[in-house]
């Protein structure tokens, strides 16, 4: 099977530190792929390289059959790579609905007031449906800056989905969420259409095993193991890495 996304021999150096050292990754169409590993393993750096936010010293990123290595983050988002960050990034003065509307049409001017009426209505309609899906319908008119952390996290997922991604990059989406919010997040991710592949960075292994059908393990900027959740769960190498200290 060909990869929807492939990262090949990716190396990122910060001075003498190799944050990534020749890492390969393949995410198939519709796959739920988890990326795990100890703090500082290079997980966020790899998401940054895939999203186009960090330029590697070496290596190639291919997406949907194209070499996208030279494209910036906006161009990659237009091709279907959308992400949520380790810390939620929303527009604090815009309402929840407006945040999703703005995220829906990245190629058009960021001010929805300039859009043609039909397009604006369609975007607002879709934003309403996404907020409903994420359990935020009651907060549609609240400025995003007034939302609790967990609600902002859900809002950012709605914004990422508004761009109709083919690949959703999630960096520790459960961090800082209450148990109820984590439950909702799991439901939302499980309900995502299979047209959307997911690359999930997550420390909580219960979530990883509940959500993923493939797991890659990074350690010290290198791939330690890759396989099915069962293979990773029982891998002596991975057990050792976790025994050595993972959050
Ligand atoms: N901009 C930067 N400048 C210098 N060093 C960096 C930079 N970004 C990351 N690093 C270093 O690269 C390594 C990998 O960092 P990265 O954030 O990718 O790890 P991570 O696996 O996401 O960790 P965590 O689980 O703590 O989020 C770490 O040693 C980190 O300190
Ligand atoms: Mg990280």
What does this molecule look like?
- This protein has 247 residues and is an alpha/beta fold.
- The chain has a domain at 5-89 and 163-243: P-loop containing nucleotide triphosphate hydrolases (Rossmann fold).
- 36% of the residues lie in helices and 24% in strands.
- It is built from nine helices and ten strands.
- The strands form two sheets. It has a six-stranded mixed beta sheet with strand order 6-7-8-3-9-10, sandwiched between helices. A four-stranded antiparallel beta sheet has the order 2-1-4-5, with helices on one face.
- The chain is globular and about 55 Å long.
- The two termini are 34 Å apart.
- The mean pLDDT is 90.
- Bound molecules: adenosine-5'-triphosphate (ATP) and magnesium ion.
- Adenosine-5'-triphosphate (ATP) binds at residues 14, 17, 19, 37, 39-45.
- It comes from Micromonospora tarensis.
- Keywords: ATP-binding, Nucleotide-binding, Transport.
- GO terms for molecular function: ATP binding.
- This is ABC transporter ATP-binding protein.
- Residues 5-245 form the ABC transporter domain.
